[in-house]
């Protein structure tokens, strides 16, 4: 199996590790850049571009992800990632107007200041970021904890340009997040395809080993290492191929998924959105094509290109797009994105994926009429068609599950021989949806067993 190790698909503002090639020995960096572009850039570049008098003018004519960093810019960036992680807490991608926020770290300084995924940071401390690399932009935003930085950004939601003064702080980025959802559904969120992503994901799967289904969340995941995506694809049983790579003047080459010792042991639903990019799109396209999981959400970002870092003789760095990737069968991703199997409204991805897991799990149960627009103080009365032996009943057979969340604590009150009342210990959440499940482990007073379970869907005002 081939492991595609060196190419990168993401620039992370708070933490990044990347491969480098040995410094190219040439008299002038601009000549080195010209040679590298001629040899490695993903497309043929006309002489009229290569003959431009400065590196910046040359790279400006390439794609947005090919940029040059001076030694000073590169050193500032390296200092920011080799020490404690301090800054404003954003994951960035190049954009023609500045740098685009791929992810705003929850509860980080940027998140608290109102920066959201999709917003475009256009200047830092009055310095324009147009044409700057994500690494360079990150170096301007990082600094000692407690110091401030002024950020101007184009808000995606309103189209307004806002300026905020943000206090830097140490950032703790948990790359893999896991938790249990109601119905024994395991939830795993991956924030980036770091070098150890597959190892962390396997630990998460082990922790959730009793799961009857999984939700793998790639929303706002801007990508990472190609090799990490190959390894992560190896977590999906029966997914044999990772991606198709096309370099300039080379035959397309198909790379295999790298099978892992620990794999998903139950059906997987994958969440994506418009900020799911690069390596995340590679994985999404592959599992969709090979039916390794079901995708929920919105069409992804559409970054199907890979970059490599080249050291230059003056210690500056050229980041260059060297190839494009496609699905294993050759479906285009760049500027196109990946369309999910099931399209949802923004913010409804998790609830839709969770609900489908639950409905499939209880497919043999009788579905009762939906309870719509109930108050947050709602209690539920369950009526049986014969006298029940409530004293011998296990009340844990009744479950109230928040769709998209956890199982809710309830108490049970006996009303009479045929009726019981289900009382949530806390008020229901407004606008939320629930499913009330009655499992079929009940006996009547004359020892007759309940034939099948039942469930009812509930929506709250």
Structure notes:
This protein is of the alpha+beta class and 461 residues long. The chain folds into three domains: 29-170, Roll (Pdz3 Domain); 176-303 and 325-356, 2-enoyl-CoA Hydratase, Chain A, domain 1 (Alpha-Beta Complex); 362-460, Sandwich (Immunoglobulin-like), CATH 2.60.40. 20% of the residues lie in helices and 30% in strands. It contains ten helices and 28 strands. The strands form six sheets. Strands 3, 4, 5, 6, 7 and 8 form a six-stranded antiparallel sheet that branches. It has a six-stranded mixed sheet with strand order 10-11-12-15-16-19, with helices on both faces. Strands 20, 21, 23, 24, 27 and 28 form a six-stranded mixed sheet that branches. A hairpin with a 6-residue loop joins strand 7 and strand 8 (161-167). The longest helix has 13 residues, at 349-361. The termini are far apart.
Shape: elongated
**What's the number of helices?**
10
Largest sheet: 6 strands, antiparallel
Summing up helix and strand content along with how strands pair, one would put the structural category as alpha+beta
Gross CATH architecture of the largest domain: Alpha-Beta Complex
Global Rg: 26 Å
- The CATH superfamily of the largest domain is identified as 2-enoyl-CoA Hydratase, Chain A, domain 1
CATH-defined topology of the largest domain? 2-enoyl-CoA Hydratase, Chain A, domain 1
Report the sheet-strand fraction: 25-35%
Number of domains: 3
Q: Return the average pLDDT rounded to an integer.
A: 88
Domain PDZ: 66-141
InterPro entries: ClpP/crotonase-like_dom_sf, PDZ, PDZ_6, PDZ_sf, Peptidase_S41A, Tail-specific_protease
Signal peptide: 1-26
Protein name: S41 family peptidase
């Amino acid at each position: 199996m081939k492991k595609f190790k060196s190419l990168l698909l993401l620039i992370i503002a708070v933490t990044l590790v990347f491969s480098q090639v040995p410094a190219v020995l040439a008299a002038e960096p601009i000549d080195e850049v010209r040679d590298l572009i001629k040899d490695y850039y993903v497309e043929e570049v006309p002489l009229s571009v290569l003959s431009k008098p400065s590196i910046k003018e040359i790279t400006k004519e390439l794609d947005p992800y090919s940029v040059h960093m001076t030694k000073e810019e590169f050193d500032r960036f390296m200092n920011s990632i080799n020490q404690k992680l301090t800054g404003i807490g954003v994951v960035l991608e190049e954009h023609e107007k500045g740098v685009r926020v791929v992810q705003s770290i929850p509860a980080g300084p940027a998140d608290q200041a109102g920066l959201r995924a999709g917003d475009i940071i256009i200047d830092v401390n009055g310095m324009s970021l147009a044409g700057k690399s994500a690494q360079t932009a990150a170096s301007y935003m990082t600094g000692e904890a407690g110091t401030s930085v002024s950020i101007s950004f184009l808000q995606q939601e309103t189209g307004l340009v806002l300026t905020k003064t943000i206090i830097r702080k140490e950032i703790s980025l948990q790359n893999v997040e896991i938790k249990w959802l109601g119905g024994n559904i395991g939830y795993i969120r991956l924030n980036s395809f770091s070098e150890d992503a597959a190892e962390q994901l396997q630990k998460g799967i082990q922790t959730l080993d009793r799961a009857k289904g999984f939700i793998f969340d790639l929303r706002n995941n801007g990508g990472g290492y190609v090799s990490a995506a190959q390894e992560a694809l190896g977590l999906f049983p029966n997914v044999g191929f990772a991606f198709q790579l096309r370099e300039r003047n080379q035959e397309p080459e198909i790379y295999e998924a790298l099978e892992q010792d620990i794999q998903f042991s139950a059906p997987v639903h994958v969440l994506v959105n418009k900020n799911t990019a690069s390596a995340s799109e590679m994985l999404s396209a592959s599992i969709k094509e090979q039916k390794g999981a079901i995708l929920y959400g919105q069409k992804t970002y559409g970054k199907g290109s890979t970059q490599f870092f080249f050291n230059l003789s003056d210690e500056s760095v050229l980041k260059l797009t060297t190839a494009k990737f496609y699905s294993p069968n050759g479906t285009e991703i760049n500027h196109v994105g990946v369309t999910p199997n099931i399209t949802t409204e923004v913010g409804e991805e998790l609830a839709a994926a969770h609900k489908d897991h639950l409905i499939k799990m209880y497919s043999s149960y009788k579905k009762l009429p939906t309870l719509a627009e109930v108050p947050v103080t709602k209690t539920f009365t369950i009526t049986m068609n014969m006298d029940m032996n409530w004293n011998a009943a296990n009340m844990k057979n009744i479950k109230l599950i928040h769709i998209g969340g956890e199982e809710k604590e309830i108490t049970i009150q006996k009303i009479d021989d045929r009726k019981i009342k289900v009382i949530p210990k806390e008020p229901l959440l407004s606008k939320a949806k629930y499913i009330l499940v009655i499992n079929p482990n009940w006996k009547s007073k004359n020892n007759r067993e309940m034939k099948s379970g039942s469930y009812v869907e509930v929506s709250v005002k």
